[in-house]
Every structure is written in structure tokens, then in C-alpha cells.
Write a structure and sequence with these properties.
Chain lengths: 615, 290
């Protein structure tokens, strides 16, 4: 698995970037056509796959009882990356920076193989990665895999504490220095997204109303001595706000699979798309935002709004004059169309019918792609991605040789953040067609992360082995995405799902609970876990592997049935049962300290939590 | 999709019947030739004493897939019901000696074959050394493979007999039909003894995790020390008991089936090794009249 190299070059100003937008798109398209024609028949006989985990570095102060994000990730990264710089071929892990200056991303050095026995190597690899980070931490620092730092963008949430200087983001809450500054990309995206957008963000996250929650939430900022007050009447729920791209300071868990060929990649892309909201609900781990318990358990919609670069015209709030299109979705959102061309006649018909949301695309680009011989669903997919402007452009990368370089294509491709992503082969390497699965929230322990990662890997195997069809209308997938992020979605919501994925000639889209989808509904749907179990039996897998996979499946089964809590509901109950919690929805420094300490203990195994794990 | 009645100058024993059947694969006769018949799912050939039911790859039957999460015995029961449900073909037909369930030959080229791990498992209600060789051989012939990469013999039978029949299993390897041998449902001691005594040692041992929950530590260490694959299965002691056959007979209306029992069954699957994808799965079954 190769990773995009993050340039440390010199980004152009927003004005210059905007001026070059057509240039980037024009050449990006040529670059795509070039790669496509070279690699459309690429075959990769072996499955290679891998996970990506994002960590937060937290500085604990035992006497003050505070837990703040530690802004040392660049220092730590320098040490971590030594291994891969010195021995790129044998590096055990690969490390990359992320948006927050307190975040670090780690992937296995070599991809996992397609031999089912190797599923047993996923968790040890994750455990080793965490140990590796710990080598370079100070004695008061820990690395946690927590999707949402509870007091992100609250006053003095970092170590060292920062002045509220935010020329990049124009944020009232998130200081610039909390963004990774060594890699200009992040600052540039932050600034440019806001510039392009033109108006302020109004990202409102509903506060969870508890017994003593006030009707107005007043945010006071000591360093600015400014009071930002949100006063709302009783009938409207209270909100906490984000006002910039700082939503990218969340951590997530991603899995990427290499497919046998382009057709298989497209099949996986399509079949995994309706699975995204299911996994998002199961991995829900972010109920606390900006120091408050909220009505959402997940980060997806928040980030979606934070990275929304659409102008008012594009959002349909003003008549189109400068901009060309009304664009229905943020560039960070779930997919808008299925793209495969495989399967029975019935499935092909379904795809036509189920692509039922408006997909805005550039007709000229579509024509150019079709004329270059690109298959229509892919052409439409690319023409849709290319509706966006580049958000950052490095001066060193402006002029390219389209036959040899791919940065312009990559620029647009990598700033369309969707629930699943189709990745092209890298010409002249053995890296083939791949699909990235992106909705999961990262879990507290490596056991859980390994469980979900292996489950997803096994889902892809049963989709391919049994030729399953999970397609439902895209509009219903979008509806599922909304529902999956609600507080306690597993208990309270039903999700659209094809309860007859076995037939190539019929389907049955109904609403089922996560429990029914995962564990089955008698006489109705076998359930994803029973399907996976029987696959494991059919492949006569090694006993040792099977036992561990049993543990993983038991965890997921418990989360789905509600017997075990999701990370989000556990965090919420932790807060609410904390001795100093005042039933006012506020998550104070002290509660945050205790929460993060508890999370660390859970990860280390020194604290037991039957509600989360069953033991 | 009809009955192909073959004139009675046909040899009567099952063995030569088999090769005869395979020969007529090449012949295109009348308006329905054997290949054409084999194309469709629920096709039946009646040849004198026996009924031959042709089936496809189990992974291609939606109704079977719906049941894929059930136990192997349930899955097989559903599969058999489905195969027999083409009542038209079977109306008025009955077998006198045998009922064969034969999967359609699986076409794969050399290149693809090397990517697959094709394994088979033999179930016998009454163990018998002749059956061991015959079953695997017939399975290979109907599937069109040269050899099985692994052949496991399910042995929920008395352990003494296992040592007696094992040499036949070794012949399978000698004759190039099987690459490695395995056994399931035996106790650790029995397996260790078999490993010691046999000329060609078993390289696979299967245990039922549902039955024993934890991998027996002695077996695990023995397997590790001797490079033996310790795999899991969830097959019952009796895959196709008489009761099930009677139930199938009743629900499909093929009442004559009540008088038959399982002679042997070979379950096969083809797994794409380096991708972890199942390519094919099915059963070759022989039922015999009581």
C-alpha cells in the first residue's frame, strides 16, 4: 500500500490556486485518462490490504487533573519515520502526519496478505504500532485512539496552551498552531476552504439536554475576553459550534483493499457503500464535542460541514452567477452513485434505478472521458469528482508532464472525501485497483479496532464468494447515514437494508435494526455475522485464527444487540456518572482527565469494563 | 430439460456406469445431448437402476445461499430438497439401487488451478476402505480435477478401524489423486497414534470448535511440533441421517427415497488461496437402497 507523499513545498495563495483551478482539472483529467488506459486491465492476483489508525497524543497533568492534546506530533513523527527513511523496504510501520498537530497516523509497513490465517496478524501489528509511538513519548504523555478529544477547540485545550491566533481558519475557537504547521497542506486547506466558501460557517451540533442543562450556552474565551453567546428559546435545542475546518482534528479508522481487477474494485465500492452507515453506527465513538455532551454519537456530519467549501450559490442559497453548479453535497460526504457494471441483468438494472440522487457533473469532462474510451459509470464518477476546485496547490507541482505525473489528478481525487473511495493502480508498480473504506470511528482499544477491521475484511470476502448484493437506493443510503449518527442509533433506529442479498434476480429493501442486520432476524435474514461464521467454517480456517475471530465477532454481535455498549454510549455514561458531573451536559477538564485516564487503562488492560467488552 | 432414457444394453455396475456416463458427455445425440442437459440446474438422468441428479456450484443457488448460515446438515438438506424438487423429471421415476448427486464439471485452466486450494471431505455412515478410494476418485472425475490438494476423512467411527483403512487413503496419495491427507473427529491420542503408525502421515486434523470450545492444548502443541494444520469444522457426527432422508422424501414427494441411506458424501470446495475467496462448493453423494 503506497501512501501519498505529503509535500513540504510552497503552496500558492488562494487567489492563485483559484486561478489555476481549470488548469489543475484539465491536466488532472488527462492524467486520469492516461493512468486509466494504462491500467484498466491490470490484474492483481493476490489480495493485499491494510488499515490506517489515527492516534492523538495527550499530555496528562496528574496534580492539576488535566488532559490536554500535546502538540508534539512533528517531533514524534521525526523519530518514528527514521525506520522507514533508513530502510524503506523493511520498515515495520509507516507514519504520517495528520491535520492536528497532536495527531499521528500509522499503517502497517507491508500490507496484510489474502491468506485468511493472516487475519491473526492484524491485532499484533496494531499493538506494536502503539508500543512504537510510546517509545518517543514523554513520561506524562500517552497515545490514545479516541475519535473525538472531548474539549477540542475549548480554551487552553492544548499542551502547550495556545494564544487564539487563527489567521488561517479565522476561527474563534481553534488556534492555528493546533494545526500541523510543518506540512503547509493543512493550513492551506483550512484557509482556502474558508476563502472559497466566502461566508462564515454555521456548524451547529445539538447539545444533549440533561436534567440541568441551561437553555442558553455561553462560551467565554479568556484570552479574547469575548463572549460568544448562543441564546435560543426552549423550543429549539441548544448547540455547540464549530466555525472552521478544525473538524478535521478527529481520528478515524480506515481500511483499504486491493481488488483482483477494476471490475472487482467497482463491485466492492458499490457493495460497501450501503454498509458504511451500518459500520458508522457500530463504531460510534464521539458523543462529546467542544466540552459538551451532544445529540450526535459520530464525527462524520461535523467534518462534512467543516470541510464544506461550497459557496452560497453552490449551496443553492443564492442564484448562480459566478459559480456554475448547484452542488448538493459537501466534498466530504457519502458517495452519490454506484459505479459497477458487473452482476446479473437485474443488478445492472438496480444500479440504474438506485442511482436516484442528482449527481452534478461537468458535461465537457464527461464527454472528454467517454471519447477517451473510459467506461460510462467511471466517466460519470470522475466528472463528478472534478466538479470541485483544488483546495491547495503547490508551486512546485503546477507544471506537470501528464504522461508521467499524477499530482493534479491526485489533488482533486484526494480532496473528495467520501465514504468509500476508488483508487487507481500506480503504473509501473504492482499496486492495483483498490477500494478504501472510510466511515469507521476509531475505537479505544486495539482489540476493538482489529475486530472491526477483520470483520470488514471478511465482509468483502463473503460479498465476493457468495456474490451478495446489498444495493439499496442511494437516497436511502444517505438517509441511513443521517440515522447512523444519532445518539444511540443502534437502540433507536432502523436502517434501510436489502434483506435478500443472495438473489441475483430480486431484492427486498426493508428497514431493519442494526441487531437484525448483524445478528439476523429469524426466518427473514440470516444476519451478517452468521454469514461470516459459515464462511469461516466453509473455508476450514485454522483453529487458532477461528478462535480469535470468534472473539471479534462476539464483540461486534454484542455491540449490535445492545448487550454491549458502543464507545459513544460508554463515554456518555462515564461522563454522566462522574462524581463532579453537574447534569448540565458539560464535560469539564476534570471529567476529561478521568475519562482519558480510564480509556488509557482500558487500552492497557488494567481496567475492566464488562459493559464494553462483556468481561 | 428432460429424461434421457438409455436403452438396456448398458452395463449394470456402478463403476462402469460412471465411465460410460462420462463418455456420453462427448456425444451429442437426439435433440438433447448430455452436455446440454448438464447445463440446467435440476436435471435428472435415469439409467436403469440408478438416478443421476446433476447440480451446479452451490454458490450459484440463491436458495442455498439463504441457508448458508445454517448448519452443514441443514444446508445439505435444503440443497437436496432443491435438487429433487424438479418433480416433473422424477414423476414415475425411481431408483432401484443408487441415487447419485453429481456436480457439473468445473472448468478451470492450468493458470487458475494453481491459484486454487481444492479440498474435499469424505463422510460415510458406515466406514469401508473401498468407499474411501472410490468416493474421492469419483468426485475428482465428475468435477474434472486431477487431484485434491487436501482430502479429509471424517472419522466419528471406532478408532481401530481407522488404522485399518488408512492404507487406502495412502494409496490416494500414491496414485496422485490427493496431495495431503487429513482426518477429523478423532481424539488427540488416536491422532498421535495414527501419525506415528502411518507410512504417509496426516497433515491435517480438523476439530469441531463448537463441540470443544477450546483447542485441546496437547493437540495444538503436537500439531505445531509436527507441522500439522489444525483446522476447524462444524460438521455433525452424522451428516445425512436416515431421518433427514425421510424428511426430504416426504417434503419433495419422492417417497421412494425413504428406502435409501447415505453410502458416502464428498464435500468439496475451491478457495482462491491468496485472495481468501470461495470459488466453488458442493457435494458428490451416493445414496444406496437399504
Amino acid at each position: 500500500m503506497t501512501r501519498k507523499e505529503l509535500a513540504k513545498g510552497s503552496p500558492l495563495s488562494w487567489q492563485e490556486t483559484k486561478q489555476k483551478a481549470s488548469h489543475v482539472r484539465k491536466h488532472g483529467l488527462k492524467q486520469f485518462i492516461n493512468i486509466y488506459n494504462k491500467t484498466k486491465d491490470t490484474r492483481s492476483p493476490a489480495l493485499k490490504w491494510g488499515d490506517e489508525i489515527e492516534y492523538m497524543i495527550i499530555a496528562l497533568d496528574q496534580s492539576a487533573k488535566t488532559a490536554h492534546v500535546s502538540l508534539r506530533s512533528n517531533e514524534i513523527l521525526e523519530s518514528l519515520q527514521r525506520e522507514e527513511i533508513e530502510n524503506p523496504e523493511t520498515a515495520r510501520f509507516l507514519w504520517r502526519p495528520e491535520y492536528g498537530a497532536y495527531m499521528v497516523e500509522g499503517t502497517p509497513g507491508k500490507p496484510y496478505s489474502g491468506v485468511l490465517k493472516d487475519l491473526l496478524t492484524v491485532e499484533p501489528c496494531m499493538i506494536q504500532r502503539r508500543k512504537e509511538i510510546q517509545k518517543y513519548l514523554k513520561s506524562n504523555e500517552i497515545a490514545v485512539t479516541l475519535t473525538s478529544y472531548p474539549r477540542l477547540a475549548c480554551p487552553f485545550f492544548s499542551e502547550p496552551p495556545l494564544p487564539q491566533e487563527s489567521s488561517s481558519s479565522k476561527s474563534t475557537f481553534f488556534p492555528d498552531m493546533a494545526i500541523n504547521h510543518m506540512y503547509p497542506r493543512y493550513r492551506a486547506i483550512t484557509f482556502n476552504t474558508r476563502e472559497r466558501r466566502g461566508d462564515d460557517y454555521h456548524i451547529r451540533i445539538p447539545v444533549m439536554k440533561d436534567q440541568l442543562t441551561r437553555n442558553s450556552i455561553t462560551e467565554v474565551f479568556e484570552f479574547e475576553e469575548e463572549e460568544v453567546e448562543e441564546t435560543l428559546t426552549e423550543s429549539i435545542p441548544n448547540f455547540v459550534c464549530y466555525d472552521s475546518v478544525d473538524g478535521m482534528g478527529y481520528c478515524c479508522l480506515q481500511v483499504t483493499f486491493q481488488a483482483f481487477n477494476m471490475d472487482e474494485a467497482r463491485t466492492l465500492y458499490d457493495q460497501l457503500a450501503p454498509i458504511c452507515p451500518i459500520l458508522l453506527a457500530l463504531t460510534a465513538a464521539s458523543p462529546v464535542h467542544r466540552g459538551f455532551l451532544t445529540g450526535t454519537d459520530c464525527r462524520w456530519n461535523i467534518i462534512s460541514q467543516c470541510v464544506d467549501c461550497r459557496t452560497k450559490e453552490e449551496r443553492g442559497l443564492e442564484p448562480l452567477s459566478r459559480d456554475r453548479f448547484i452542488i448538493p453535497k459537501s466534498r466530504y460526504d457519502s458517495i452519490s452513485a454506484y459505479i459497477s457494471n458487473e452482476g446479473s441483468r437485474y443488478v445492472k438494472l438496480l444500479i440504474l434505478m438506485y442511482n436516484d440522487v442528482p449527481v452534478v457533473l461537468n458535461d465537457h469532462y464527461l464527454l472528454e472521458l467517454l471519447e477517451a474510451g473510459v467506461e460510462e459509470p467511471i466517466a460519470r464518477h470522475i466528472a463528478h469528482l472534478f466538479v470541485r476546485d483544488p483546495l491547495v496547490l503547490f508551486s512546485e507541482k503546477v507544471d506537470q508532464e501528464d504522461e508521467k505525473e499524477i499530482d493534479h489528478f491526485d489533488n482533486i481525487q484526494s480532496t473528495n472525501w467520501q465514504t468509500v473511495r476508488l483508487k487507481l493502480p500506480l503504473p509501473d508498480t504492482d499496486v492495483g485497483w483498490r477500494v478504501e473504506f472510510r466511515p469507521c470511528e476509531v475505537q479505544i482499544t486495539d482489540f476493538e479496532n482489529a475486530a472491526f477491521v477483520c470483520f470488514i475484511a471478511l465482509l468483502t470476502r463473503i460479498i465476493l464468494s457468495y456474490k451478495l448484493n446489498f444495493l439499496i437506493p442511494i437516497s436511502k443510503v444517505d438517509e441511513n447515514m443521517k440515522r447512523s449518527q444519532e445518539k444511540d442509533a443502534i437502540k433507536n433506529c432502523k436502517f434501510y437494508f436489502n434483506s435478500n442479498p443472495f438473489d441475483s434476480d430480486s431484492d427486498e429493501v426493508t428497514e431493519m435494526t442494526i441487531n437484525e442486520i448483524i445478528n439476523g432476524k429469524d426466518g427473514y435474514f440470516s444476519g451478517l455475522i452468521p454469514l461470516v461464521e459459515s464462511f469461516l467454517n466453509a473455508t476450514e480456517i485454522e483453529a487458532e485464527t477461528h478462535q480469535r475471530l470468534h472473539d471479534y465477532l462476539r464483540l461486534i454481535s454484542g455491540r449490535a444487540s445492545g448487550e454491549l455498549q458502543t464507545a459513544a454510549s460508554w463515554i456518555r455514561s462515564f461522563v454522566r456518572s462522574h462524581p463532579s458531573y453537574k447534569f448540565d451536559s458539560q464535560v469539564t477538564e476534570e471529567i476529561t482527565y478521568d475519562l482519558i485516564t480510564a480509556i488509557n487503562q482500558l487500552e492497557q488492560g488494567t481496567r475492566k469494563e464488562p459493559l464494553l467488552y462483556g468481561y | 430439460m428432460g429424461k434421457l432414457q438409455i436403452p438396456c444394453c448398458i452395463p449394470q455396475t456402478s463403476d462402469t456406469m460412471w465411465s460410460f456416463l462420462l463418455c456420453i458427455k462427448q456425444v451429442s445425440g437426439k435433440q438433447t445431448n448430455i452436455n446440454h442437459i448438464k447445463e440446467s440446474q435440476h436435471t435428472v438422468i435415469v439409467v436403469k437402476m440408478s438416478v443421476y441428479l446433476f447440480t451446479e456450484n452451490m454458490l450459484d443457488y440463491p436458495e442455498v445461499k439463504k441457508n448458508v448460515s445454517h448448519t452443514p446438515e441443514k444446508e445439505l438438506e435444503e440443497f437436496l430438497k432443491l435438487t429433487l424438487q424438479s418433480k416433473q423429471e422424477l414423476d414415475g421415476l425411481k431408483a432401484e439401487h443408487y441415487v447419485h448427486l453429481i456436480p457439473k464439471a468445473i472448468k478451470i485452466n492450468e493458470e487458475e488451478r494453481s491459484t486454487l486450494k481444492i479440498s474435499a471431505k469424505l463422510f460415510m455412515n458406515v466406514p469401508n476402505e473401498m468407499k474411501i478410494y472410490k468416493a474421492f476418485n469419483e468426485a475428482l472425475q465428475s468435477l474434472g480435477f486431477e487431484k485434491f490438494d487436501a482430502a479429509v476423512v471424517a472419522w466419528p467411527h471406532p478408532k481401530e478401524q481407522l488404522f485399518e483403512v488408512w492404507p487406502v487413503a495412502e494409496n490416494l496419495v500414491d496414485d496422485g489423486l490427493v496431495s495431503c491427507l487429513g482426518v477429523s473427529d478423532v481424539e488427540t491420542q488416536t491422532f498421535v497414534l495414527l501419525h506415528e503408525k502411518s507410512r504417509l502421515k496426516p497433515e491435517i486434523v480438523q476439530i469441531n470448535l463448537e463441540a470443544c470450545c477450546v483447542v485441546p492444548p496437547e493437540l495444538a502443541s503436537f500439531a505445531r511440533a509436527n507441522d500439522i494444520q489444525l483446522l476447524t469444522h462444524n460438521d455433525p457426527k452424522e451428516l445425512l441421517p436416515k431421518k433427514t432422508i425421510e424428511e426430504i422424501a416426504k417434503s419433495t414427494g419422492c417417497n421412494w427415497l425413504k428406502e435409501f441411506s447415505l453410502d458416502w458424501a464428498v464435500r468439496y470446495q475451491a478457495l482462491v488461496k491468496c485472495r481468501g475467496v470461495l470459488k466453488a462448493k458442493g457435494y458428490v453423494i451416493k445414496l444406496v437402497k437399504d
